[in-house]
Amino acid sequence: MARQLFQAVERFPQLTIILAVISALVFFNLLAYKHAYAMLHFSQQGQRTHKPEALSIWQKIHTLLAGVNIPKPLNNSTPDKYGLAYETYYFDVNDETELEAWYIPYSESKGIILMFHGYASSKSSLLSEAKAFNEMGYDIFMVDFRGSGGSSQSETSIGFYEADDVTAAVDYVQTQLGQKEVFLYGQSMGGVAILRAIAENGVKPKRIIVEAIFDRMISTVENRFASMGIPSFPSTQILIFWGSVISGYSGFEHNPIDYAGKVECPVLMLHGTKDERATLEQAKAVYEQLQSEKQFETFERVGHESYLVAHPDQWKKVVNQFLSR
Questions:
Q1: Which of 214, 232, 238, 211 is nearest to 296 (CA)?
Q2: ω into residue 73 within 30 of 0, thus cis?
Q3: CA distance 109 to 140
Q4: Which of 69, 269, 278, 286 is most deeply buried (CB count within 10 A of its CB)?
């Protein structure tokens, strides 16, 4: 059999090359599809794949071939553990999507802040920020995006359909809780969803705070490949293509830098100088497109993480001043 194969290769070298190239392309696309699906669908079990920068060389190779595993992000704490009284609410985005939220009241409140978490996370990741906001005198409404925490489904769209979650949450607190003026706060994907909700869904908050935001979908995927030490071209383009097919929207057109120009309310943007997931330059590119009142604050030597935890005094000061204007 092997002998016949070698003979065929010798007789048809060009055909062999063509078949080899086609096979490589098919394999590469199947691998990209597998990765895209895993990034957009949370699993029900197994250990979560470590962050790219934390992987060894062999772990990176294994991840490239086997794909990532991201179990559905669950809430690992509750507001009462932070000394906060709260109520749990459920509301619908559509017939298929129900969201869970925590409502943390404050007597003689200055307003209500709706909080939205980042990718592959849940609302419990924002409890430190929620406590700080509450101590500043605000009611808090913490939302689990679709696929996360106590909300239904097990999928994510990196902020695209999550914009509808933001819209539904704002509508809920205004109609059911009687809160007309709302403030919005979002970390990373949460910030992206807020900008899209304003630009495409017509949400009109009083003020917004966004942290660790990327400028374009293609940029954040390129950053992820860079952290793995892998050339981003053409891997990024192929991954986004298959992600678009899977999710039903064009990832090439899901760009916060385009949403920013339609924002009319005051904006506070916070960003870490060492963020490799969404670089400082990319965040500033979004900031430059904002046409409303705006402020940009950097946090030295901080990556894609909680700025409140890293620099509590700086975060509380700049946020409180912005909200009090």
A1: 211
A2: no
A3: 10
A4: 286
Q: How far apart are CA 171 and CA 203, in angstroms?
A: 9
- pTM as predicted: 0.93
Q: What are phi and psi of 112, to 5 degrees?
A: -120, 135
**What pLDDT shows up at residue 191?**
99
pLDDT digits (tens, 9 = 90+) for 61-82: 777 777 789 999 999 999 999 9
Question: By C-alpha distance, which of 73, 315, 286 is closest to 196?
Answer: 286
Q: Return the sign of the alpha-carbon dihedral for residues 180, 181, 183, 189.
A: positive
59 pLDDT band, cuts 50/70/90, is confident
* Longest CA–CA separation in the chain, Å: 86
Could you give all domains of the chain from N- to C-terminal order, each with its CATH number? Answer: 79-216+255-323 (3.40.50.1820)
Question: Would you state the structure tokens that stand for residue 250, as one six-digit string?
Answer: 């064009």
Q: What is the structure's pLDDT at 64?
A: 75
Measured between alpha carbons, how far is 221 from 218 in angstroms, rounded to an integer?
5
Distance CA 191, CA 215 (A): 11
Q: Which two tokens stand for residue 294?
A: 């705006």
Q: How many CA atoms lie within 13 A of 209 on its CB side?
A: 24
Burial of 170: CB neighbours in 10 Å, binned 0-12, 13-18, 19+: buried
Looking at residue 148, the DSSP 8-state letter turns out to be: S
